[in-house]
Amino acid sequence: MAWEYAPAPESRNIARLRTSYGMFIDGAFTGGTGGSFKTVNPATEEVLAEVAEAGQADVDRAVAAARKAYDKVWAPMPAAERGKYLFRIARMVQERSRELAVLESLDNGKPIREARDVDVPLVAAHFFYYAGWADKLGYAGFGPDPRPLGVAGQVIPWNFPLLMAAWKLAPALAAGNTCVLKPAETTPLTALVLAEICQQAGLPPGVVNVLPGAGETGRAVVTHPGVDKVAFTGSTDVGKQIARSLAGTRTKCTLELGGKAANIVFDDAPLDQAVEGIVNGIFFNQGHVCCAGSRLLVQESIADELLDKLKGRLATLRLGDPLDKNTDIGAINSAEQLAKIRELSDIGDAEGATRWSPPCELPEHGYWFPPTLFTGVSQAHRIAREEIFGPVLSVLTFRTPDEAVEKANNTPYGLSAGVWTDKGSRILWMAQRLRAGVVWANTFNKFDPASPFGGFKESGFGREGGRQGLEAYLCAGDGRSGT
Ligand code: NAP
Ligand code: MG
Questions:
Q1: 297 and 231 assigned to the same domain
Q2: What total number of domains does the chain contain?
Q3: What CATH number does the domain containing 186 carry?
Q4: Hey, which residues are catalytic here?
């Protein structure tokens, strides 16, 4: 039975919302040439702020500022000095963590519990981690004297707005590059506060530039001839467009794209823990997670027992006000994303799978979708093949480990996977065979800045995090190529 909780709302005043936000170019906040757009709170549909939109001339200006800062200040600076700026940014993120968490929850719709306990602490950790690398690049395994690439053009999605900004900026800056970052149209606010933190940290003008806007702004950033390296996180479709537009140029590129991860539960797994891992795998951040465990592969002999437990657990999830500290499931980020989740779920019904959701009252305003699972799913179903990017789990069964591997790998994606079993040898056996960048064992959706993250196949290429995450921002200074 679900507990009754008294409301425990975090105060939205902590977000220090402004009515309008400018873009950040060459160390200053300015209006732009592209007009402006509104960002809304997806939990209420209320307009949060008006945000300046970067047009082509703004992108030109930002790239020029980044180039100048690279040539004159950032690349020539002793690496230990660069590291100090990153340490300072990390500490300021910690100091303003509550403000950032509330702002992220308002703009994105994610539960404050997650923004506060996961997103923002990981942002600080990421800056701390790469700050430590700044003066040790010669020991990172890319030659004794690796060099930065120049100006990085970086485009990020809306699911972890601040965290993806940190994943992009921290390694780039540590390696000596300067950055032009475009946040997602629906979630620009925390990246702009991060820009303010850069300003307050005394980061030299032009080292970080933040350009809010829509897809066109992103396209202008990634195709700009003054950009030496492109880093993109988002959909596989846009990733393919970017790869096509950069083919044959000298611009380096890394892509972090979609996923359709298998979370595989064997009959000897600790089932209660597995249930927690399944819930965390697909309902964390409303399932707006590229490495979400969106396909549950459960061994046939325990399928009924596991599903009973899982349904019981889903009935206790609390959906509603993202700013309530007891909320587990927040709002879907946008009307477009909600329409996509509904469409694919309806296709699941039409293809003959069985939909189940716990009794769950949806708020009247805003964009909401209940936690949902589909049983009777076959590998041919679109809900088993396509990324839904919402709180929707497709359940399939298997009998043998070989069959589990075959089904898990039967996807164009390969970002992550989970294995639940009591046997260490089976974990290793599975991990060797799963074509996924990350394999979690008896856990799921765990992140650490020291651990590389990235995809196989259509999930993209390049790694973020860890020593490996530096490689995308360095070239060997002694003529040797990177490892
Ligand atoms: P998206 O369209 O790929 O957006 C990602 C970022 O790229 C956003 O900043 C977007 O701007 C920008 N963008 C759009 N078109 C561009 C272009 N032609 N050139 C350069 N940049 C461009 O992804 P989305 O619409 O946010 O989400 C759609 C799907 O992508 C999701 O349903 C999910 O399957 C997948 N996704 C994956 C991840 C991941 O972490 N791997 C994250 C988010 C989404 P706008 O904000 O204006 O769109
Ligand atoms: Mg928003």
A1: no
A2: 2
A3: 3.40.605.10
A4: 256, 290
Can you give the pLDDT of all 483 residues of the chain as single tens digits? Answer: 556 889 999 999 999 999 999 999 999 999 999 999 999 999 999 999 999 999 999 999 999 999 999 999 999 999 999 999 999 999 999 999 999 999 999 999 999 999 999 999 999 999 999 999 999 999 999 999 999 999 999 999 999 999 999 999 999 999 999 999 999 999 999 999 999 999 999 999 999 999 999 999 999 999 999 999 999 999 999 999 999 999 999 999 999 999 999 999 999 999 999 999 999 999 999 999 999 999 999 999 999 999 999 999 999 999 999 999 999 999 999 999 999 999 999 999 999 999 999 999 999 999 999 999 999 999 999 999 999 999 999 999 999 999 999 999 999 999 999 999 999 999 999 999 999 999 999 999 999 999 999 999 999 999 999 999 999 999 987 544 433
Dist CA 347 CA 351 (whole Å): 6
Q: Which of 111, 113, 116, 114 is nearest to 43 (CA)?
A: 111
Residue 482 lies in a domain: no
For a pocket test of ligand 1, which of 39, 180, 190, 235 has the largest count of ligand atoms closer than 8 A to its C-beta?
235
Shared domain for 208 and 309, answered yes or no, is: no
Give the residue whose CA is nearest to atom 41 of ligand 1. Answer: 257
Q: Which atom of ligand 1 is least distant from the CA of 235?
A: 30
109: CA distance to ligand 2 center in Å? 8
